[in-house]
Model the fold of this input.
Amino acid sequence: MSKLFTINAFKNIKQTGSLFRSSKFLAEKLTDSLSPKENMVIVELGAGDGVITKQILAKMGADSKLYSYEINPIFVPRLNAIGDERLTVLNSSVAEITSDFKENEVDMVISSLPLTNFDHAFKKQLMKDVKVLLKSEGQFIQYQYSKNDKKLLKNSFTGFTTNFCLLNFPPAFVYTCIN
Done:
């Protein structure tokens, strides 16, 4: 367990969404559809201390690019220390995502954002923004500890599947949405 993550989670649980960092099993489930053969533009929302970031980098292609958003400045040095030239760390809010990318530029968005902690208007706008950025057939992958936002996700995209990761604390639902 990352001491840095736990300390910051206690300071701001609303922002981190959990007192525990994601397990390697959850990170693997979130990256199941990544292929090292593909050249992709991937966006990570809520990178935290990098446990999922590292898994994305391990599974994505050599010519792919990963843009990881993390609003908490405490985590940014740890993310930058990963030291992979395919990774760009953005210490900014996901609310600014549409100014960082063109329409239909992104192949995949992997989100660790605690949607339950956000108001409905913000979540709806985030879904609209993600849809605009995703290519046709692009994927939005979001995990949550409850089914509270399942309907919003399902109604926002044309394709939708649910998976479950029991080997995480707490266990998590993994939603894969297709644009």
Summary: Confidence is low (pLDDT under 50) at residues 13-19.
